[in-house]
Amino acid sequence: MKNLFLCLLLLLFMGSSHSLYKDEEQERDRITLLPGQPTNVGFSQYSGYVTVNDESGRALFYWLVEVPFAKGIIHQSKPLVLWLNGGPGCSSLAYGAAEEIGPFFIHPDGKTLYINPYSWNNLANLLFLDSPAGVGFSYTNTTSDLYTAGDKKTAEDAYTFLVNWIERFPQYKHRDFYIAGESYAGHYVPQLSQLIYERNKGIKNPVINFKGFLVGNAVIDDYHDFVGTFEYWWTHGLISDSTFKFLQKTCDSVSLQHPSNDCTKALDVAQWEMGNIDRYSIYTSPCNNSSSLKTNLRGHYVSVSNNLNHQRMSRAYDPCTERYSETYFNLPEVQKALHANITGINYPWKTCSDIVGNNWGDSPVSMLPIYQELIAAGLRIWVFSGDADSVVPVTATRYSIDALKLPTITNWYPWYDNGKVGGWSQVYKGLTLVTVTGAGHEVPLHRPQQAFTLFRSFLEDKPMPYSG
To answer: What's the whole-model pTM score?
Structure first.
């Protein structure tokens, strides 16, 4: 009996010490106060690194923003949502967190922050991840990793991150979990979703309690993206009739990854005809009229200006927020507060990594087979699209979804926000499509209130509102 009692005490001590260790890990990652942050924000924040590969020294950077205390009467029941930006090679801090769905936006001085009233953390705990290694604050000790990134490794590392992160934050074990993202995250999100779904098979009560995903202006299928993008350019008066026909003839059946010389020429003509517009939001002004941007059709960013990396933004916001992000996240005091750049990288923080993006490896031509698998599994899948984006336009998304040949549950209808049409929606068996009128590539940036309504409907698994 004495030995049994001692064993029980030992087990109790080991369990409590393990819990204490996890608490210590969390506390090390707790953000006390970000420089320039408004006071009394009423929610907890954590950020730091999770190692995903010991051998090569790959570690991914995260920022967790929890639900406000005042809204958290049932705080423990609020879901966890992982947000991923695309590129590939672009930071989720730069876009998702700092100018779309995060709690703070950056003032033009690049030093102070202000509250985003439509932050998605009012509805869920948000986990922003810089992925893959080499993007944002995420790093690797093996230089070759920067030149060999691709879809498969990105999904595997993100999965390893989640498993290890949840061990550090065990309060999120078994919590309802969703993945959201935009643009080239149209690859990241379904691929990671598939990985989690398949590895959860046979587990009665999985630690990662995956429920579904939400993607916006997403790269889904090369062929249909081509067809829909050219059609969007032509129907919105961005290119001539002859260029539209030239694109259809030379690019229609060519993979985006390996365009022919004739296809490249046609794309160059189309870029010239479009002129100096913000292709991510065709009805709004770019940040710098003297700069230009060339993009390919997969949502990759290819800079042709030394002055500005990427043009973006909307009529409701200052079109230069990326510049403020680059100023803010390069401040030593900000990096210290975020527990970032602990290895002292010898290059400045950037919104997107040209090295990672320009050397991207494997990239399947279609995500449709994954959609089919996960729809059959009964997971919640929503796809949304800002209809003022010419890079991954609404027509491309509609062609891709149509290719799934899903039965329609609720036909195309206008949805409302505050008495006004916020966009249109169609509910299929296993998938919901939502458009957001007037929004560009980053829907929550251009139409924050409508995006908030969209996110709430997704979480509640309810159709978009039929009336204001």
So the answer is: 0.89
